[in-house]
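FORM 12-B: Structure-to-Sequence Request
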């Protein structure tokens, strides 16, 4: 049987953009001599297309994907052209070659993908370039992913933070349970820039955030229509922190006796009393019996949750005032942060009771798991971890989104003309418009439940 070659031979490179002229194989390297199969003659200075002439050439060494375990170097003569219109010279553009990086485009793409999985040093060694080159390719690759993974703007926006080296702002879609973005810091300028970048940001009705003033101020400025709600979780965790301060100081003062184990019992006490199993309950009550002040502090921490067990703002505030009045003098100091929070953030804490009861609590397990991965010594930088968390394809939550669009009614003469009918103008008279429902695929962001399951495996 005869094989007929339908396509031009592309040789060992398999790059249709290059004609191979010869090849040399060394121990660890392939060297291929090639010439461009076609070049672009477009003048980058003035846009002239046809009036260009060859004006010398330049030898380039282009790195390609390793082949058969060997480094691949392409020796390429690229013509220099002169534009007869503007008299400027320029290098011809060769298909599939990234002249800036002296690499084939496919190697640049491969390097980009690798730079999310491995450290810059590891990738640099694999590809045979320096770390700075890998970092540049990574930055460009992430920028292209950001365009590719455009997220839907949520109705309920969650603003939280995670401490990875320093505090980083994170944004969630509360209803969709997805992560939308992570910023390198939590400065108000960064937060405002992010909020401003959200398409159709007017559709955000609620913002749930922590008690960090720049979050609130940014939301007030950029999303004036949205109701700001202090996240419930962050309110009750203030009382947890106060209780913890009491626990530590009692433990410290009584290191030799019963207090000895107290210092390490953080996790046990962080649980709600109702969530303790029998053994844990006995342990906790043993300590509480021993230290009456610890018992009072524990009771305060548990009772603060009552503020959230009522129906209205008024009832909630009354519950809070009851709670505040019950703080004994000895505990005034450790519990002061709770008091300050309620006094400074009253309006926004109570907004929780207004209509929808939104909370961002599910991001907390995300926080602890991502922090663990970050600390694990897998060489993650914030940028790399961010890229992997945000732009891994299988983690995307894609949903069909129905949109109502106003379209101009087709009139008789337009139907006959065909081309005229694509106009969609805001402010057209209603009798000229009709509303149609269109369905498109939307991306809500990184699905947090899926991400959490994967963070638990070593595969991340
Ligand atoms: Zn020109």
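FORM 12-B RESPONSE
SEQUENCE OUT:
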């Amino acid at each position: 049987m005869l094989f007929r070659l339908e396509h031009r031979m592309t040789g060992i490179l398999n790059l249709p953009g290059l004609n191979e002229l010869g090849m040399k194989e060394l121990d660890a390297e392939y060297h291929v001599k090639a010439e461009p199969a076609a070049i672009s003659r477009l003048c980058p200075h003035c846009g002239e297309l046809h009036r260009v002439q060859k004006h010398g050439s330049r030898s380039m060494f282009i790195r390609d994907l390793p082949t058969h375990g060997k480094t691949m170097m392409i020796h390429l003569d690229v013509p220099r052209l002169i534009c007869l219109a503007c008299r400027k010279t320029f290098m011809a553009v060769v298909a599939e070659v990234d002249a800036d990086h002296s690499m084939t485009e496919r190697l640049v793409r491969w390097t980009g993908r690798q730079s999310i999985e491995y450290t810059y040093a590891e990738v640099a060694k694999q590809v045979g370039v320096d770390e700075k080159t890998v970092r540049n390719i990574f930055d460009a690759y992430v920028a292209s992913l950001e365009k590719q993974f455009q997220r839907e703007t949520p109705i309920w926006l969650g603003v939280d933070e995670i401490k990875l080296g320093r505090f980083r702002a994170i944004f969630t879609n509360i209803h969709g349970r997805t992560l939308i973005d992570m910023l390198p810091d939590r400065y108000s300028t960064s937060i405002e820039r992010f909020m401003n970048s959200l398409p159709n940001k007017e559709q955000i009705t609620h913002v749930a955030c922590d008690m960090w003033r720049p979050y609130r101020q940014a939301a007030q400025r950029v999303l004036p229509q949205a109701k700001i709600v202090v996240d419930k979780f962050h309110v009750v965790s203030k009382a947890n922190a106060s209780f913890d301060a009491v626990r530590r100081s009692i433990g410290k003062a009584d290191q030799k006796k019963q207090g000895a184990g107290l210092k390490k019992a953080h996790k046990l006490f962080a649980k709600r009393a109702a969530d303790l199993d029998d053994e844990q309950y006995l342990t906790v009550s043993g300590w509480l019996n021993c230290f009456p002040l610890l018992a009072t502090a524990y009771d305060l921490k548990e009772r603060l949750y009552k503020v959230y067990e009522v129906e209205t703002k008024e009832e909630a505030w009354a519950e809070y005032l009851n709670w505040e009045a019950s703080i004994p003098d000895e505990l005034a100091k450790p519990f002061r942060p709770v008091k300050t929070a309620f006094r400074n953030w009253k309006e926004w804490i109570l907004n929780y009771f207004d209509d929808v009861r939104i909370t961002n609590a599910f991001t907390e397990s995300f926080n602890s798991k991502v922090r663990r991965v970050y600390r694990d010594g897998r060489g993650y930088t914030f940028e790399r971890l961010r890229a992997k968390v945000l732009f891994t394809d299988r983690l995307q939550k894609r949903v069909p989104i129905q949109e109502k669009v106003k379209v101009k009614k087709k009139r008789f003469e337009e139907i006959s003309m065909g081309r005229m009918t694509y106009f969609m103008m805001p402010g057209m008279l209603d009798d000229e418009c009709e509303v149609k429902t269109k369905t498109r695929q939307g991306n809500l962001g990184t699905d947090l439940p899926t991400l959490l399951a994967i963070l638990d495996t070593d595969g991340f």
